[in-house]
């Protein structure tokens, strides 16, 4: 399962350890949530300014956010590319992740891992519009993190 990681920001350092972690989290999310075994996911690290623009353009929300998911499998099935199912892109503001990790009192790595799990679950059709959906998604996120030793 290919996970492509692209760092488009320079405000928060991104090392090999973080890249390895997010690849594991994406794989665990796909496995635990029953995603296709041949899935390809793109993880993109950005800053607040970049994600603010995306949030305004695609969601009509004029402020930065922590994570955005752009699913490619919504609606009509897409043709396979090289035998892999292209699930979509998960865009994460590392500036916001750093701030939130401090606010929530846990590590930056755990916060980024949570955002990756959250974003990949969105690509797989999970949502949090209702209380029931929110609870189901939160349970899945926490199970993913627990499997990787990142539980609260």
From TrEMBL:
The keyword rRNA processing applies. InterPro entries: MetalPrtase_cat_dom_sf_prd, YbeY, YbeY_CS. GO terms for molecular function: metalloendopeptidase activity; RNA endonuclease activity; zinc ion binding. Its main location: cytoplasm. It is found in: Cytoplasm. Zn(2+) binds at residues 118, 122, 128. Gene3D superfamilies: Metalloproteases ('zincins'), catalytic domain. It comes from the Bacteria. GO terms for cellular component: cytoplasm. Binds 1 zinc ion. Keywords: Cytoplasm, Endonuclease, Hydrolase, Metal-binding, Nuclease, Ribosome biogenesis, rRNA processing, Zinc. It holds the Pfam family YbeY. GO terms for biological process: rRNA processing. Its cofactor is Zn(2+). NCBIfam families: rRNA maturation RNase YbeY. Belongs to the endoribonuclease YbeY family. Single strand-specific metallo-endoribonuclease involved in late-stage 70S ribosome quality control and in maturation of the 3' terminus of the 16S rRNA. This is Endoribonuclease YbeY. It comes from Desulfofundulus thermosubterraneus DSM 16057.
């Amino acid at each position: 399962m290919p996970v492509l990681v692209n760092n488009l920001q320079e405000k928060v350092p991104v090392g090999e350890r973080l890249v390895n972690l997010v690849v594991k989290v994406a794989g665990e999310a796909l496995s635990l949530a029953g995603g296709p075994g041949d899935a390809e996911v793109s993880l993109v690290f950005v800053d607040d300014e970049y994600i603010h623009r995306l949030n305004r353009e695609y969601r009509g929300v004029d402020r930065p956010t922590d994570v955005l998911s752009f699913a490619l499998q919504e609606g009509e099935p897409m043709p396979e590319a090289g035998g892999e199912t292209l699930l979509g892109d998960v865009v994460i503001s590392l500036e916001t992740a750093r701030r939130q990790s401090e606010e929530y009192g846990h590590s930056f790595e755990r916060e980024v891992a949570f955002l990756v799990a959250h974003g990949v679950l969105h690509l797989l059709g999970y949502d949090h519009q209702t209380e029931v959906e929110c609870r189901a998604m939160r349970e899945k996120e926490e199970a993913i993190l627990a499997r990787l030793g990142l539980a609260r």
